[in-house]
């Protein structure tokens, strides 16, 4: 599995390596991450991840670009910003860092959407 951060690809041969890299990124106040088997942002399935100091937004892109879902959380409010205001996400699409880690470990195992969180199919 390849974790792409700031245009750098980090190869994770085991789930333990993957977990270590993801935990490090989730500990930051701001991060944009892509996860896929080969590190290509146009390779499916893949996961797009935005991290801020209080939560995470996960976007799962299935077998092709027509299968897109976003995590569904319980945060209140209008919008949440990520990456110094570069991205604005509706608050209901933000989950805890702990829940995001569980979902990302599930993605490592089967490339699908984790049953540990709720998802909203976007198209």
Q: Could you characterize the architecture of this molecule?
A:
- There is one protein chain.
- With 123 residues, the chain is α+β, with helices and mostly antiparallel strands.
- It has one domain.
- The protein has two helices and nine strands.
- The chain has a seven-stranded antiparallel sheet with strand order 2-1-3-4-5-6-9, covered by helices on one side. Strands 7-8 form a two-stranded antiparallel sheet.
- Strand 4 and strand 5 form a beta hairpin.
- Helix 1 runs antiparallel to helix 2.
- The radius of gyration is 13 Å and the shape is globular.
Question: What keyword list fits this structure?
Answer:
123 residues; alpha+beta; 7-stranded antiparallel β-sheet; 37% strand; globular
| Number of helices, where a helix is a run of at least 4 consecutive DSSP H or I residues | 2
Number of strands: 9
The string of secondary-structure elements, in order, is EEHEEEEEEHE
Query: What is the makeup of the main sheet?
Result: 7 strands, antiparallel
Helix/strand/pairing category: alpha+beta
Choose one word for the global shape: globular
Q: Strands across the major sheet, in which order?
A: 2-1-3-4-5-6-9
How many structural domains are formed by the residues? Answer: 1
Helix content: 10-25%
Query: What distance separates the N and C termini?
Result: 25 Å
Kindly provide the radius of gyration, computed on alpha-carbon positions and rounded to a whole number of angstroms. Answer: 13 Å
- Can you give the mean pLDDT? 91
Stretches where pLDDT is under 50 for at least 5 consecutive residues are none
Beta-strand portion reads 35-45%
């Amino acid at each position: 599995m390849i974790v792409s951060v700031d245009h750098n690809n980090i190869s994770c041969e085991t789930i333990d390596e993957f977990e270590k890299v993801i935990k490090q990124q989730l500990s930051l106040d701001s991060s944009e991450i892509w996860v896929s088997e080969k590190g290509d942002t146009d390779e499916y399935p893949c996961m797009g991840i935005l991290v801020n100091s209080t939560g995470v937004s996960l976007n799962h892109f299935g077998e092709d670009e027509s299968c897109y879902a976003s995590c569904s959380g319980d945060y209140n409010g209008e919008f949440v910003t990520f990456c110094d205001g570069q991205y604005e996400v509706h608050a209901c699409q933000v989950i805890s860092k702990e829940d995001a880690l569980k979902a990302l470990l599930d993605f490592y195992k089967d490339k699908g959407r984790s049953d540990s969180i709720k998802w909203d199919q976007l198209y």
